[in-house]
Amino acid sequence: MSGPQVAIDLGRIERNARTVVERCAQSGIKVFGVTKGMCGMPQVARAMLRGGVAGIAESRFENIRRLRDSGINAPIMLLRSPPIARVEEVVRTVDISLQSELSIIREIARIAERMGRVHDIMLMVDLGDLREGIWPNDLVPTVEQILEMKGVRIAGIGTNLGCFGAILPTEENLGQLVAHAYKIERLSGKSLDWISGGASSSLPLLLEGRLPAGINNLRVGEAILQGGLETFRDPPWEALELDACRLTADIIEVKKKPSRPIGQSGYDAFGNQPVFPDEGDRLRAIANIGREDVLVEGLMPIAKGVRVLGASSDHLLLDVQDADPPPVVGGRLAFRMSYGAMLLAMTSEYVEKAPMHDVEDYSGRKMVSISAEPSAAGILAREATGARLEAMNFDVVELADAERPPSGLIRLTAGADRRIAHTALAATARATHSFGLIWIDSIAALMPEEIEGIDLPEASVLARMLGLDHKPGALQPQLSPENIVIVGLRHADPAEARVLADSRVSAFTMTDIDATGMGEVMREAIHIASSGTQGFHVAYAPEVTEFAGWAAGSGGLTVRETHQAMEAVALSGGLLSMSVSGFTADLEPRIATDAVSFVMSAFGKRIL
Ligand SMILES: *Cc1c(COP(=O)(O)O)cnc(C)c1O
């Protein structure tokens, strides 16, 4: 790890979501989890969904596309009205959108009708915060006009408070919202699905038991992502966990210096004339993050005795005189962030985003279960695969198909062709809530074309897993294209290259590997596959490796590079399952022998 990083603890996000969802459920309220503070990271959305949110709410199209591309098919709410030019995308991709302008609603209705759809809208009412919303006096005439439109349905009514005008939600203003809702219901003769009483800032009212009856939806971001740090200042909601997102940065200088600058003072880099109290000589540290990456005023050092003094565009200045132990150059400092600081850090391309899970403790004995198609079973037996794994301290266990594998168990599957990877991954998908895939192969298997009479052509296996062929067998939501990486690619049909470019799958070609080296490629590949997942599957096809005199592997990885890739897998500790294809009766024995020793390397075989 180097450079500034936002570490995102998905376990905390899931637990915070569950805390909010369960409390809201007691009052008949369904929660939409707001991911805009996290740039629509699919891992975050999935953590919220595991925590029980009814849907995801987002303000930006880029983020919504990212969520949908990751196979998240939960209801998505668009939090911000679209520009006219993007109305079609709204109708196509989101289930409900917040609206307050008649002209845009009219355009939505027109386009939805043309597409043969009815789009659900939530009408926003301005109760005094002066951001978006219909002014209450205009509500009835607006609703009357919308009721004439066939392409939209008023699915709900909502309000937004505490954003621009810093107006607090109260029994009174939210009571007005409920009254407006009943008025709309009388007018339309239909009941509304949603009366949406705001965001995190409405939760304190709920906990005090003063949220007006009738409200049945909240759109919650901050309380889940930040543990209510800003929503619940005093008193905090103890059940929520802080620090789901933390910023860390490297310390690049530590020196004792005077607390007042020396010389004639002018303006700083941002046009201000700062004033410095004289506190004598103090130990100061500089961290490698600045105003270009984060809202410095929103940074709260987690270590005691550390104080933010200020920042320029890429230097953060800290007083560390009272820190115990004192920070050292090369160390790192961690910060809690305000919502504003988090937003900026998440959108800075200089800050790495690292979603992580609570690491499960796999200590104790390691277990492996082996399954193989008949031709492959012969090869595995000949190579004494089970015995060699036992010699490496694995328990080789039999696992019934339907059985849920114990945690820490790694599954090894071998078969005649690449379709075995689909079988193996489907089992991994049943055993985890999120996993990545390192596809070590000469082809991407993303061919969009179908072949008469073959249910799943080998060249389309990955396309099937991603649901790109619209057939059953997609492995979403557990497997997101953002967590798939191809290593060793050497052939791609133009149509396939297009599919690859449009997907969020990463690929390292032989050219990339020649240029960067296998070590670096695998470091990145493992990072991609483990980012926010519980671990990953490795799918290996012998064609990716160049075995002397074997035409199928010509131009591929060397045997040594293949071992290097597998050793990196073993070291990462992230292997959940592995599949090997190409194990047919006519595979040359020497190639099978090498392929099985690659498996051993992936399971951690070392020379010494
Ligand atoms: C951002 C936003 C929310 C979520 O706000 P939090 O304070 O993060 O809970 C809800 N509704 C709308 C319209 C928003 O823009």
From TrEMBL:
Q: Tell me yes or no: is Isomerase among this UniProt entry's keywords.
A: yes
Signal peptide positions on this chain: none
Classification via CDD domains: PLPDE_III_AR_like_1
Domain (Alanine racemase N-terminal) ranges = 8-224
Please provide the record's keywords in A-Z order. Answer: Isomerase, Pyridoxal phosphate
Q: Which InterPro entries match?
A: Ala_racemase, Ala_racemase_N, PLP-binding_barrel, Ureohydrolase, Ureohydrolase_dom_sf
Cofactor section: pyridoxal 5'-phosphate
Look up keyword DNA damage and say if it applies: no
Similarity-based family? Belongs to the arginase family.
Q: What is this protein called?
A: Alanine racemase
